[in-house]
Every structure is written in C-alpha cells, then in structure tokens.
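Weekly modeling sync, notes
Attendees: S.R. (lead), two postdocs, one rotation student

Agenda item 3: backlog of single-chain predictions. S.R. asked that every request posted to the team notebook include the full sequence so nobody has to chase files. The rotation student volunteered to paste the first one in as an example of the format we agreed on. Action items at the bottom.

Example entry:
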Amino acid sequence: MSYAEIMLERAKERGSLSDIVFRLGGSGRKLPFPLDKVYVSLESTAEEGELLLGDDEGLCTKESLTASVLVSERESAEKCREYAKRVCMELMRLDSDKRIISVAAGKCVYDEAAAGRRTVIVFGLRPVRRSGGD
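Predicted structure, as returned to the notebook:
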C-alpha cells in the first residue's frame, strides 16, 4: 500500500476535512463541471531503491507524496492558498508514522482544463526499507 493510500484513508476519517473531497491521483475519475467543492488528489512517487554495501536488510526506497489542491475558478487565489495551507497542516498532523521530512508548495495557478485554481504541494518522505514483496 502506498503512502498516498494510507494518507487518503486517514484524511477521509478526519472530521475537520469533511468539506474537502479526497481522491487518489491517477484514478481516472472525472471531476464535475463546474467544480462545486474543493478536491485534493494524493499521489505517491517512489524512486528506485538503493542497496547499501554490507546491508542485508533490503532496498532503501525514496518516496514523495504529492497533494494537488483544486478549487473552483469562482474562488480567489487567496482562498486557494488558504485551502492548500489547511490541507498541508492537516496532512502533517495525520503523518503519525513521521515520514514527512520536507514540504514544498507551488504557486496557485489557473488550471484551464479543470476550470479552477490549483496548488501543488510536494512532501518529501523519509526513505523506507523494502524487503520481499513490500
């Protein structure tokens, strides 16, 4: 299970985020037009693992978590940033595994395809050791 899937489940259970719709990135589900809610897409990206010399424990895999926050075009860029900040803070609270080691948020930009404003937040995650079929 990817860290995006884990965080998605935690976010859906969180009552303070009930006004936001969370989805797994790349799910292929279409968004309504026009946007009626705030949507957050979570996606994990893993880099090829490294086998450290003399280490028999398995591969050490680097991973990042991307949260894409999308609001209606009727909302201002400031409102987009407020939602992004709220999502960022809540995801960091939900990180009970303490995997998040860095955060980088982009500017709020107009997404013509979605007819909304989008902010992308990239969370750098602590590398994890993968062994066997994990």
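Discussion: group reviewed the output briefly. The helical segments are 3-13, 77-94.
Action items: rotation student to repeat for the remaining queue; S.R. to check formatting next week.
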